[in-house]
Every structure is written in structure tokens, then in C-alpha cells.
Amino acid sequence: MSSRRQIHQHWSLLGLWYRLADALCIALGLIISLQRGLTTTANLYVTVAAVASVVFYLVAEAGGLYRSWRGVSVHRELAGALACWGCTLMALLMLGFLTKHTAQFSRISMVTWFVVTPAMMIVARIATRGVQRALRSLGYNMRTFAIVGVNELGFQLARNIEASPEMGLSLAGFFDDRPQRRNPEIPAELGRRVGSIQDLVDQARSGAIDRIFFTFPMRAEDRIRGVLDKLGDTTASVYIVPDFFVFQLLHSRWTDILGLPAVSVFDSPLYGIDGLAKRLSDVVFGSLFLLLAAAPMAVIAAAIKLTSPGPVFFRQRRYGLDGREIRVWKFRTMKVCEDGPQAVQAVQNDPRVTPLGAILRNTSLDELPQLFNVLGGSMSLVGPRPHPNALNEEFRARIGGYMLRHKVKPGITGLAQVNGARGETESPEKMKKRIEYDHCYIREWSLWMDLKILLKTVFVVLSRKNAY
């Protein structure tokens, strides 16, 4: 049996395992939740588990959750599972409302089920990944890949893949028909596995190579076409890895425009299931944070009203997603409410700041009303911090790529803020450093990154550095 056929069988079994495991997690989650309070017949809960399993299966199939995740970060797979569960919950709640059955269920039991089920799905997927990694370290469920082109891009690709053993890919070698003297020397850690194009074709025909990556420069169209013609007599999966590193990519992905393939150069990472997962996390955690902060916010509002004349809240114009103007909520900390064409940044010991405002700014409590922006959808918990519009207009003309930070929603906290790039930006150099962090966040975004930033924010706020 060829290795490629074995691989397809492995994935078929793995896909079946995930489908069964998810249904089992839904059922077990409900059983565990029933220990928290049973207020109706067991048959009704069995029906709920069955309906939930079917709905989740349909959502997961539509969202591509059961596709092969080989070579994709586990965080993205977990985000996909959470997003599918979130969609399932919304469908179940809507169905329960329409059929008027919601009153028959224990609220504690349902909340427990909503939380326990995705937790078990996460554990199941992490455990499965661990088993896969262990098996692949022993040589099971591996694919062999070849790189066409002896060049720096090929070397980097090989390093990236070999540094990620969980991908289950083993390097067969580099293949190129150019004279050896024209090719750079292969790094020692990658070995000296070099062959001709005919060697590649012969190995691919025999089934010894499963994946082939072209790393020729984009201008080498004739060479690529010639090799592709020869590989047309094989069943290997063939990929072209463009040398896009010559461009300053923000976030790139392949898309389809009326049947024509295209690759984005400046794009948002929050599309499809990732965008849904991001929004669900904002709504869930934003609601939780607002619930916890409600009492302190009421006290702060009363204190502002009692200690200085003027409104409690200050709404300032900012640029949001795609550069559209939004209004950002803050507790008023100054004696004035400036929002004009000239941006005057707050400085240390700023005379415009009220005594109470100084405390709020020093502890970042003045930002709490932005939770309303998060729940309203104009902001996110984590993302590039929004700047005053006047400041935006000033620096977009001075810093290249400045407006690319608006490819995602602005956040209450961000990667720049937890890495020390917060507070006053009195020089282009400081602003440029902040923009670099914003671009890095967009390129490398994941829900796990958001969680780490939220946790780091707690320590940054407690340190009170550059907060005034």
C-alpha cells in the first residue's frame, strides 16, 4: 500500500474520531451539568443533546472544522472549535425561544453545559495532537516532501517545516537542474540532499514523495511550467511558494475572484471562522468584564460628578476598522473635553487633568467605558489602540504603512501597550515603534495571543508605567 493511500486512511479515521469525540463531549457535558440541578425529565435533556450534536456537526462541516489541520497551529483549530460551539449555542437558544422550551431547563445546568462542553473539546484536541506528535516522532503518519529550487527561500521553508515536527513532514531533498556552481551551498543542518528534476519525477511516480514545493522566483515561469509538465504524470500534491518576502506583507491569504486566484498583500486575519471566534470572545469576555466592573464604574461616575463640573463620560472621535470614524467612550479626566482638529496629547503633570482624573489615568480606569464599544462592535478587547483623529492624520503622512493598523478593530489594550509602547508619542520614532507592534499583532494574530495580551495587561496596569 502506498504511503499516500495510508495517509488518506489515517485522516479518514482521524476525521471520524473528531466527529465522534465532539458528539461525546456534547453528551458528557450535558450529563455533568445535570449533576448541578435536574428540573425536568431526562428525555428532554437527551433530545437537547441529540439536537445539539446534529447542529454542531452541520456547523462544523460548513466551517471546515473537520478538514486536515496538518501544518496549522493548534490555536487556530481550537478557535475553530470554539466558534462552531458558539454558533451552535446561538442556534439552540433561538430554537428554544421559538418553541418556548427555555423555561423548562435549569439555568445553572445550561450554563455549566455551555462551559464544560467546549472545555472537553479543547482537551480532546490537545490530547489528539499530542498522540499525533508522539506517533510522528516514531515515524508513523508521516509525509515526505521535496523542494524544487536550491535557494534561500527553499532553505527557510525547510527550516520552518523541520522545526515543526507536529506537521508530520520529512524532507526528501532539494531538486534543481541548474549547475551546482550557480546554486548557494545548502546549510549543514539541512544536509546535502540534492537531485535532478528527473530524480524528483522518478521518486514522485513511485510514490516516495507526497508533497512538492516550488521555490523558484516568480520570474522563472518557463522553468516552473517545464517541471510541472513532467510532474503531471504523478499523483503528488504540488505547491508553488511565491517569493513574496520581497514585499512587506501585512497579512496574506489566497482568495478567488470570479474564478481567478489572487493573493492578498494587505489584509485582515479576521475573516471567516477566525472573525467569528474573535467576535464571540469579545462578547463573552466583554460581558463578563462589564459585569465585574459595573459597581466600580458606578462609583467612579458618581465621584466624577461630585468632584468637578461637566459630563461623566467623554466621547472622542477615533478611526476604527477600515478607517471608519467611531466614537470612543472614556470617563472624563480633564477639565475640558477637547476633540478638535488639533491633537494635544496628555503629558505628565498635565494641568488640564483633574485630581480624580489623575488617579483614573494612572490606573487606566478611565478606559473602562470602552467595554460598551466592545459590546457594540466598534472596538475589540485586544487590538491596536485608537489614536485621536488629528494624531492619525499627522502620522499617516510621516510613517509608511501607518493606516494598515486599521485592518482590524481598535482595542482597549494591545501588543504595543504590553511591550512598553504606551503613553505619550512625542516623536515619530516612538510612534513608529508602536506601529511595528500593531503590524506584528495583525500578522501573527491568534486567540491565544489575545489571551496572553489580556493577562499581561493586568501586570502592565499595576506597574503604572507611562500612565498619566
Protein architecture, described:
The protein is of the alpha/beta class and 468 residues long. The chain folds into 3 domains: 3-137, no CATH class; 143-246, NAD(P)-binding Rossmann-like Domain (Rossmann fold); 272-463, no CATH class. It contains 14 helices and 11 strands. The strands form 4 sheets. The protein has a 5-stranded parallel β-sheet, sandwiched between helices. Strand 1, helix 5 (152-162) and strand 2 (169-175) form a beta-alpha-beta unit. Helix 3 (74-99) packs across helix 8 (272-307). The longest helix has 36 residues, at 272-307. It is flat and about 85 Å long.
Low-confidence stretches: 1-9
Gyration radius, in Å: 27 Å
What percentage of amino acids are in beta strands?
Answer: 5-15%
**Straight-line distance between termini:** 68 Å
The strand count comes to 11
- Helix/strand-derived category reads alpha/beta
C-alpha geometry? flat
**Could you spell the SSE succession in H and E letters?**
HHHHEHEEHEHEEEHEEHHEHEHHH
* SS summary, helix count: 14
| Count of individual domains | 3
Largest beta sheet, briefly? 5 strands, parallel
Write down the overall mean pLDDT.
Answer: 82
Into which percent range does the helicity of residues fall?
A: 40-55%
Spatial ordering of strands, largest sheet:
3-2-1-4-5
